[in-house]
Amino acid sequence: MEKKRHRIGSKVILGITALFFYLPIIYIIVFSFNDSRSLTKFSGFSLRWYEKMFSDRTMMEAVVYTIIIAVLATIISTIAGTLAAIGLSRSRKALKNVVEQVNNLPIMNPEIVTAIGLLMFFSAIGITKGFMTLLLAHIMFCIPYVILSVSPKLRSLDPNLADAALDLGATPLQALTKVIVPQIMPGIISGALIAFTMSFDDFIISYFVTGNGVNNISILVYTMSKRVNPSINALSTLVILLITVALLVVNVVPIMREKRRKKV
Amino acid sequence: MRQFRSMIYPYVVWLAVMVVVPMLMILLYAFTKEGNDVTTFRFTLENFARFFSDAVFLDVLKRSLVIAIVTTVICVLLGYPIAYVIASGPEKSKMFWILMITLPTWINMLVRTYAWVGILQDDGLLNKLFGLLGIGPFQMMYTTFAVVLGMVYNFIPFMILQIHTSLAKMDKSYLEAASDLGANKVQSFLRVTLPLSLPGVLSGITLVFLPAVSSFFIPKLLGGGQYVLIGNVIETQFLTSGDWNFGSAISLIMAVIIMISMYLTKKVDTDPAAEGRRE
To answer: Which of A35, A102, A163, B164 could be stapled to B83 by a disulfide with Cβ–Cβ 3.0 to 4.6 Å?
Structure first.
């Protein structure tokens, strides 16, 4: 009897938690289909805000910039971070400690501090604020996450493996691409996924280092939200959809592949 | 073994340029005045004096700290039972609920914060629900309530996940031992479960307090333009008034406060008294 009551209590707590987390998300999706401008009264189904969004040049540009930056930052930071992590795993202890500490700085620091540091740095060296500064900043804050997710995989890797490959006549490049990288692939993939979502969702750092009309989705939502503009709901729904699909693909595809392999 | 060692050097250079130099620039600007002083290295404490002698800024600092602390406390009080319920469920539901908690954190924070605007408005969903109960309507948008709610909503997943991790790692045989030795449920929770999950609570506290104290778009979106926290002051200094020296000084003050609070949390974690209880 007591156990049953306990179970009902747990269900209530979890139900409220799910409601709390998902109500706003569902709310914004529902109101993106609202016929009127109101954020509180649903007056009928319509796709007008989607039409407006797709015909709005600034919004579409922001979507394109967000995706291009996220893809480029992910590719570059995943490659650079993986190479750095491999180098780090073979470095002397003193250097390793220093690099690990500095590598953690962008993760530990409040984002706004990283943002203003980069803002001042970019203007000191005279790069025009815009696409380039945005990309550099995104690479900068993505690499540490790639390193953090690749390093544990390298730690559990047998260090003799690469040496064995070299002894057997592999070139260093072959040893790297054929022996080390396949072994740490799960770490690289999860690092790339973190990098992609960090870049895709970033607001604070992007907001400070961008310029010249180059905006990403977050900056656009921030600047547009000062006035009631239901197109934001449509844009938000698009963002939610993109990220959910990306997450599902990353999480579900390996499971499906695993299942198919088992069947064969 | 040494083969790939040199691969770290490009990253060392990158870190020095992209991470260390910007941090040093903040320090440099914080301790200098506008104009030629930055390049001639004439150091001054004027920026800090200006901050600490102005009641407006001190009020903002105090409000930021209070809101961050309130947010953190609420996250512990709500996050602990949620994490506990998840951790004590069967394996399959555990995985499902962890996914449910993690999923929203992958969605753009700005979008999730903006989503509350319609719910909190005077004729919004929440007030309509209150109306059904015969209370309200309350003004919620542009109040401290909305700001704290926005922060709890954005940051509580970190708390839940941290506490859950430490609860899941716990050896269940301790609980059996406690009940064998005659402890009732409350006693074994207070004496076994709670102390063992304390590290998770503490790392959750840092993960919530840090973004809460430096947040600036949550107060802007849900608190309105008049609602100023320390992050908003930094934003204004850099993007509106263009006073980088003062802005750097304020962010340095904020960074020091965060470092102190992290140090204190760590100290509780390694406190010998807590150590003793854990054994």
So the answer is: B164
Going along chain B from its start, the domains and CATH numbers come out as 54-278 (1.10.3720.10)
CATH of the domain at A74: 1.10.3720.10
Interchain contact, B15 vs A243, CB within 8 Å: no
- Most B CBs within 10 A among A5, A120, A142, hence the mutation to make, goes to A120
Contact A110 B8 (CB under 8 A): no
> Touching check for A200 and chain B: CB below 8 Å?
yes
Chosen for mutation from A43, A83, A116 (greatest number of chain B CBs closer than 10 Å) is: A116
For residue B107, give the chain A residue with the closest CA. A240
pLDDT (0 to 100) of residue A264: 57
**Full domain range(s) for residue A115:** 57-233
Q: Distance of alpha carbon B226 from its chain centroid, rounded? A: 22
Instruction: Yes or no: say if A89 and B11 are a contact pair by the CB < 8 Å rule.
Output: no
pLDDT in tens, B217-247: 999 999 988 889 999 999 999 999 989 999 9
- DSSP-H helix ranges across A170-230: 172-174, 181-183, 185-201, 204-209, 217-224
A72 touches chain B (CB under 8 A): no
Pairs across A and B, CB distance < 8 A: 207
Token output for A139:
């690479």
Per the structure, the count of domains in chain A is 1
Question: Which residue carries 């005077």 as its tokens?
Answer: B122
- Tell if the CB–CB gap between A25 and B115 is shorter than 8 Å: yes
Q: What is the pLDDT along chain B (279 residues), one digit of tens a residue?
A: 467 888 899 999 999 999 999 999 999 999 988 765 566 777 889 999 999 999 999 999 999 999 999 999 999 999 999 999 999 888 888 888 998 898 888 888 999 999 999 899 888 888 888 889 888 788 988 999 999 999 999 999 999 999 999 998 888 888 888 888 888 888 888 888 888 899 999 999 999 999 999 998 999 999 988 889 999 999 999 999 989 999 999 999 999 999 898 888 888 776 655 444 443
For residue B259, what is the nearest residue in chain A, using CA coordinates?
A: A109
Point out the residue among B112, B121, B238 whose CB comes nearest to the CB of A119.
B238
Which residues, 6 or more positions from B234, have their beta carbon under 8 angstroms from its beta carbon?
A112, A116, B216, B247, B250, B251, B254
Q: Are A201 and B108 in contact (CB under 8 A)?
A: yes
| pTM listed for this prediction | 0.89
Determine, yes or no, domain membership for A208: yes
A31 belongs to a structural domain = no
Which residues in chain B have their CB less than 8 angstroms from residue A203's CB?
108-110, 217
Task: Give the CB-side neighbour count of residue A70, counting CA atoms within 13 A.
Answer: 24
Taking alpha carbons only, the member of B227, B212, B210, B219 closest to residue B113 is B219
- Which of chain B's residues have a Cβ under 8 Å away from the Cβ of A20? 153
